[in-house]
Design brief:
Elements (H helix, E strand, L loop, with lengths): L3 E2 L25 E6 L4 E5 L19 E9 L3 E7 L2 E6 L11 H4 L5 E10 L4 E5 L7 H8 L5 E9 L3 E6 L5 E5 L9 H5 L7 E10 L4 E5 L19 E10 L2 E6 L6 E4 L20 E10 L4 E5 H16 L13 H15 L1
Parallel strand pairs: 1-3, 6-8
Antiparallel strand pairs: 2-3, 4-5, 4-7, 5-6, 7-8, 9-10, 9-12, 10-11, 12-13, 14-15, 14-17, 15-16, 17-18
Pfam family, one: S1
GO biological process, one term: translation
Family: Belongs to the bacterial ribosomal protein bS1 family.
Length: 349
């Protein structure tokens, strides 16, 4: 009489094929586990006659390290034995700190690996383990060697449309450098296009997230900040600037002794609406502008020509006491002077 011993009933250990543990002609004691008289089928078990190794799970503790033996390699990880028949899973994400690691590429069946138990589910008879937690965390080592604020040397190993990825010298850590952290002056995307794989540049460590395995760096932070020009300036102070560009929206100017350009809105060109025309100015001209708003923490400054006119008007009011004080002065307006001259000429005729 024939009976069936299912693959899962051969051993408590993970078996891929009966040939791994059984040979044709061998004799084994069997435990009958099912009997179907209608189908004339008899189900038996070999492992049912031995002690379930999962009953020994209580001697293993979550958080402790154990040496395990690799017994099966899968696309998603590796199965390993804590002891004969007691299997744990090491998922690919728990193999190490590098991304996209593969158990098939790292191990072979029979390898002994040190792992730390992560979880034990007795109902589902599952044990999860981690090799990564038994290794020195490279991000912690990086933080010890290069704390936040440290300037170090990096090599561009990759880039995308908005950032560079740099490998820091003497480490295996790849850091993130956003295009806005490359320069104070140039357009971020244009600046990003200047760099290629293999380029070397100095960067400052700005942020380290050990638990998330992330390091953010900045090349701009290693450069002198042209915005420091305004450290000695204040609101309502008048400075001289050179006109860089004119357009329908206003003016682009660069203060003297400063490398940064600033936009003056059309509404800030003059007090008189009729004079708020960028076409009145020529590129290269030097003009006086007032600092309307200055926030060093936000790196924000608003320059205005209108402010200079307003300050001049205010000074005149304080000096002469009234807005029409100019009427007491000779040649108060060209129109009035010309009218008197024409009238006098007619009377003489």
């Amino acid at each position: 009489m024939d009976c069936l011993v299912h693959l899962a009933e051969i051993s408590y250990s993970r078996v891929n094929h009966p040939d791994e543990v059984l040979s044709v002609g061998e004799r084994h004691d069997l435990l009958v586990i099912s009997c179907d008289t209608q189908k004339q089928q008899l189900g038996c078990s070999i492992k049912g006659l031995s002690i379930d190794p999962f009953t020994n799970i209580d001697k293993y503790e979550i958080g402790k390290d154990y040496d395990v033996k690799i017994v099966k390699l899968m696309d998603f990880g590796a199965f390993a034995e804590l002891e004969k028949g007691l299997i744990c899973l090491i998922h690919n994400s728990e193999l190490g700190f590098k991304k996209s690691l593969s158990a098939k590429k790292m191990f072979k069946v029979g390898d002994i690996v040190k792992c730390r138990l992560l979880d034990i589910d007795q109902n589902k008879r599952r044990v999860a383990a981690s090799r990564k937690l038994c290794l020195v965390n490279p991000y912690q080592a990086f933080a010890d060697q290069y704390p936040v604020g440290t300037v170090c040397e990096g090599v561009v190993v990759n880039k995308n449309e908005y950032a560079l990825f740099l490998k820091i010298k003497d480490t295996e850590i790849e850091t993130f450098c956003h295009c806005s952290d490359l320069s104070f002056l140039n357009d971020p995307e244009e600046e990003l296009n200047k760099y290629q794989k293999g380029d070397t540049l100095h960067v400052k460590v700005m942020e380290i997230k050990i638990s998330e395995q992330k390091v953010r760096t900045s090349h701009r932070a290693t450069l002198s900040d042209p915005f420091d020009f305004f450290k000695t300036k204040s609101v309502n102070q008048i400075i001289t600037a050179r006109i860089v560009k004119t357009d329908s929206k206003g003016l682009l100017v660069q203060p003297e002794d400063c490398l940064m350009n600033f936009h003056i809105k059309k509404s800030n060109i003059a007090l008189n609406v009729a004079d708020q025309r960028a076409s009145r100015f020529v590129v290269g001209d030097r003009i006086d502008v007032g600092i309307q708003e200055l926030k060093m923490a936000d790196r924000k400054v608003i320059l205005s020509i209108k402010l200079v006119e307003e300050m001049a008007k205010k000074e005149a009011l304080e000096k002469y006491g009234q807005t029409d004080s100019g009427k007491q002065l000779p040649f108060k307006s060209l129109k009035e002077t010309m009218s008197k001259a024409i009238k006098s000429k007619k009377e003489k005729k």
